[in-house]
Records
---
Amino acid sequence: MSSGTKTQTPSAIESHPPEPKESREWLWSLILGLVILGLVATVPVLGDASALHTWTLIIMFVVLAQSWNFIGGFTGYSAFGNVVFFGIGAYTTGLMLLGNQPFWLGLVAGALVAALFAFLLGLPVLRLRGHYFAIATLGIAEAMREFVTVRDVGGGGGGLMSLPLPSLASYVGFFYAFLGLSLLCLLITVFLTRSRFGYALIAIRESEQAAEALGVPTYWYKVGAFVLSAVPTALAGGLYAYWATGFDPDTVFNVSVSVEMVLLTVLGGPGTIVGPILGAIAFEYASFQLQTSGFSLHNTLLGLSIVIVTIFLPQGILRLIREFVRKPAPGTPRANRLVEGVRRVRRFIAANGV
Amino acid sequence: MAFGQVFVNWLLLGSLYAAVALGFSLVWGIMNIVNLAHGALIIVGAYTAFWLYTQLHIDPYLGIPLTMAVLFVVGWIVQYVAINRVIRAPLLVTFLLTFGLDLLITDLIQQFFSSDLRSINTAYAGNGLDIGSTHIAFDHLIAAVIAVLLTAALNYFLTRTRTGNAILATGMDRDAARLMGISIRHTYALTFAIGAALAGAAGAMLSELYPFNPSLGGTFTLRAFVIVVLGGLGTPWGVVAGGLVFGLAETVVPLIPGVGPGYDDAIAFVVLVAVLIFRPNGLLGKPFYS
């Protein structure tokens, strides 16, 4: 035994991989994100009114997915009720507009109210974990919808709210406002992948107990992430309120919007920089195309996509692609790379099965 | 309202809620899956009973075995084709998958039966037993009795039969159960099928008692969750306890001056958070499954 190890030891040291260079992945992701948003920015110039309408909504979903990513992707907490912040933003902004306040002030108020709400809600709810957290957040969205409906907050019966029409020229403004919000979320995401705060959130996702043991105040970081994800969601809600001019609790507190945020992020890749953008654009674009072609089974489609995504892309498109192109073991013939990649992807999918 | 009447209403509602949550508790306890499609399965049960009643003129209560059989098959297929494939995935994935199934099932029912509010009016719907000023409706009483019988049957099945023991063993330790020669794939499919069949029974009973439409599934899922959390995972009788406590909250809270009806989900949510903070293991339960 000894002679064998002796001869092997020096070669083992030589073949030891050098210290990995700092990954530049974040930079490429940021550039890719900027390019995508830049391309989308040309829609008002190149497209017609209906394209503008569709893309405004698509970018809104991009923002929703990006902000869900802060809590769901980074800390791994399955928040299923984030639509509640959207609704709060919409109703606060709406009430401010009805009180003859300027629109921007309404947006700010909506963001502040949602942030406060997320903070106060997060204090009890973020003590829960796993299923309990998920259902508690789902429950708060339902409870809030019920409350707004029963108390008739909008004043139009059953919580319905009607706002004054914004001027027609401003629809382009709404589009760029959503796009700007998305850009902001992109920058925050990059910041999260590169900062102490973001590392703490990822540590919570990987092992909350280990993070706690290393002295990370996990509870307060989670509350911070929850508030951080509430603010852009509320801003999107406020923008949506004025853009749509009329809405009811069933629209802005709709739990399936919450679930769409989760789906879009999971589809792209939770915890990644461009994942939510890619997932949201791909899914929502396809969904709008189907709707305009007269396909009426929207929820069937959404349900089926969820089933397919969760079974075949449990960690998103990006993760699957990475699995496919990962460097094969040394000595694998070039010709076998494709087969090897397919085999790896299949193994990756099957790993979740019984 | 007289105290006796409130008491009777509470008992009847509480046992009905036990039936609503029974299958949910089984699936969660054994497979650690929170089945968000549970409410949709209850709705499928309700519409199966409705279909049996309008097409074949079978009374919803007498048709319960048929409804359960239909749902058993549906549940088996769902588990075997879909959920078994993600059983080891992170929680988010299974959660999302069952929500997708919920959307899918609800939308399909809506296509077949439309979203109109339906109800079943049997000949004996108004009849009941009067003790003093207290009225006990027959249909509610039968439902409560069936709910208790189902709980007892599930308890017997799990603790006294070989197959039931296999299910419990799989819930306790999947790998050890596999080494004992239990087929995990089939046991899981069976567990989910039984859970779905129980949801079907609950749906059949609800269809006789209350008007229903396809969009009610979500509220039942939320309630089932709260009831299971209240009672604690681990035993079928815990579900009855949870159902009774939750029924109490729903019977009493609207009677408080200044609150009034209409806050069902809000009540459920407040009860849930309160229990999770003060008694994380439920009222009767033990931290049996993580």
Note: Residues 44 and 200 of chain B are 7 Å apart (CA to CA).
---
Amino acid sequence: MIAPRFSFVGSGRPRVDAGDQVSGRTVFADDMSLPGMLIGRQLRSPHGHARITRIDVRRALALEGVEAVITGADLPITYGILPVSQDEHALALERVRYVGEPVAAVAAVDAETAARGLELIEVEYEPIEETASIDEAATDRVLIHGEGLGRNVHRAASLEFGDVATGFEEADHIREDVYDFRGSTHAALEQHAAVASFGTDGRLTIWSSTQVPHYLHRALEKVLELPAAQIRVVATPVGGGFGGKTDPFSHEIVAARLSMKTGRPVKITLSREEVFYTHRGRHPVLMWVRTGFRRDGTITAMHFRTHLDGGAFGSYGLATLYYTGALQTTTYRIPHYKFEGVRVFTNKPPCGPKRGHGTPQPRFALECHLDAAAADLGLDPVTIRVRNLVEPYSTTVNYLRITSCGLRECIEKVVAASGFGDKHGKLPPGRGVGLAVSAYMTGAGLPIYFNDMPQSEVSIKVDRGGGVTVFSMAADVGQGSTSVLATIVGEVLGLDPATLAMVTADTDLTPVDLGSYSSRVTFMAGNAALEAAERIRDTVVAAVADELGTTRDVLVVGDGRVGVEGAPEKSIPWPDAVRAAISRTGPLAASGSYTAPTLAGPYKGSGVGISPAYSFSAAVVEVECDAETGHVRVERVWLAHDIGRALNSLLVEGQIEGGVYMGLGEALMEEQAYRGTLHRGPSLLDYKMPTFLDVPPVESILVETVDPEGPFGAKEVGQGPLLPVIPAVANAIHDALGVRIDEVPITPDKVVRAMRDLARGGSGRVGPASVPEFDFGRANRVAVPEGLRP
Amino acid sequence: MIDRILTLSVNGREHRVLTPDHRTLLELLREDLRLTGTKHGCELGECGACTVLLDGTPVLSCLTLARSAEGHAVTTVEGLAAGGVPAPLQDAFTRLGAAQCGYCTPGMLMAASALLNSVLDPSTAEIQEALSGNLCRCTGYGKIVAAVRLAARSGR
């Protein structure tokens, strides 16, 4: 096959919006100011669990400068990101369920008056029994949702693919391990902010730092009881998302209600402390895994259990629950697989999706478990993985369709680049290397709410001067989605991507894209943009063929011209070509769309984990550990990623480096920690995250497998590269010190405890002893896919 | 609340502003002067997003009282490009992808600019040290270090 030649695809080009970013001209939500704008603030619960017995806003309303005060009674309709979890109120009604839950809100002429207004709101609470942990939720306590006593279970799942009992019988060696992944949070640098303006025409406009303008649009329609046609949602440039801005939020709904009440624009910007309470971050997950192996390391069966601490509300939690069991099979062939999981409610800020959504936790467990099993069997970490590798173009036991897959090449490349074979088990004491691999979805196969409309639509309009405007609802959250769409359209039309006008993330102006989550934009919006651009190109080419008196098949589009390749006299500039097209066929506009193929398997829960393509990653981490202080210093990270095709290598590297960074933070220091139900330190000083001084050099290796369904073959990179980093760190620490820290984050105190245990003749393991008892009931037995049957 | 008229030099221009006595420099820049290029991520001096220069020295504008900036030259990200031509530092950030979401970028640029004003060709370690008070959640910092190095070599 001759490699295609590209004008723009592949090369490392600057973002199309970089000029504004480096000059301070990017307008984030809090940078906005409208005439007559009020400032809104929210009063938050000081209790983890309490009934609201009295709420009196009269003194606040009487304060000069306070224009409106609202409480739960003003917003009685529930909402939630998932149709099955409509359990949130924008302001608590009757009951508060976590410290920091919004209870009332004020709109005032300025921030100080709003803050004084909050102080004048009188709320009386009657505290009730709190549930603070997975263990507590496993016993009968006061229900967080509903009345009376019971276990605070949100949802449980039990699925068995094939027959694990048979699989375990075939095993020569069975290993069981227990792991704990403590939760973390996104801590995007930009605090959430929204500006709402209810106009005299009865239309509401909201500008918000959201990753999901379309879903926010739907939530506002429901809660405010306004027709969707009268609501305009504009996603402002998002100053870091990582999944933390993918729910509809209280402050967005409250700003809108306050604007409707006052007839003036209202801005609400969360303080950093409020961002920690808003959370929706990584679920704490307790895990138990049992795997059967043949002597040569081949997996015969796996049984995986997860216990998720969901916090006080549903959020994406039902999906998260299934994600903790879905993707184990996408890296390794597991002939018989059983997954049991339960998500509980606790009186803490709600957990939700953070980069990797429900899969970094089990990936940490699985990759550490495999290393431990390899040691049992006398195998090295590379061999046990390669022996079980999933094959390209195959189906997993839980019905996930794998297409392009460069996992083997990823492993080979990181192992070679890092010298893993020469280092593992051979470095001086205190130094070690760890390997781990992973896979991630390139876009969720299904939308969040059931519908059979496209998951992404893109429109393109061409001006008589040749100017191309691209319309897409995809929100740029820093990943560079706008630049990626520009690259795709520019490539097809032969125009420099930097010269295209990009109109994005505005429900009045742009056709629907479901949002910037689940690593879906490059693939889904990208394919929609590709289709739209090809339609424009075809119309223009037909017109030029007519103009030049030639046939379409000899014409090419490129370098700002349309014509016969290699014959400049038979080619015309793009603007002339556009005018030729408009003269012949009228306005030059086209739309394209993308809908994922039907992929769900024959079982309930199969909607989670399916994707039109999977990315694959392999990481090697080298560490130097101080056995006495427990301090772990990461020396270097090698990360190979199967990107399908890099549309912009600079952006791809940026996502890899950012994913590695975030993975290192989670591995070694980041924890959304509580004392009971009270956040231990809702500030950027107390929430430890890596600084310039904590980050090692990262060697990114791109593996291109050219996915048959991706735009130009591209797959995702926003989330996948984070996944292998955390277990690779844990495995490297084991290689360095001989201790197993089966609990993330791996803080120095845990390393010291493990070293002391080792010195006393113990196993040198720190981690949970067991998972709570829970009756998952009878598993839903699912026959293995036909091709995999013996 | 006492209002006071402050006279401040920002990006080479004198501004007279009637503003509350307890106004921080961050608030004054963003709200009174509408220079929203300077960001905030915590307003407690933890993240570095609000870094501006005071007589060439990087300060956290969220912890600086506006009135204490009187008589000093304040430089913000809006003042980096001379005559609309991007400074080498801005150009390097663009070319090397040192900005992803772009939210920490103004603070990074100001801290880096102060470093390059005092050290001609800083080492990687010097750059990491100088910028260690500025948090970024997107990039993993590597491309920011590379951009500062490139800017240093291309004459700031």
Note: The CA atoms of residues 619 and 639 of chain A lie 4 Å apart.
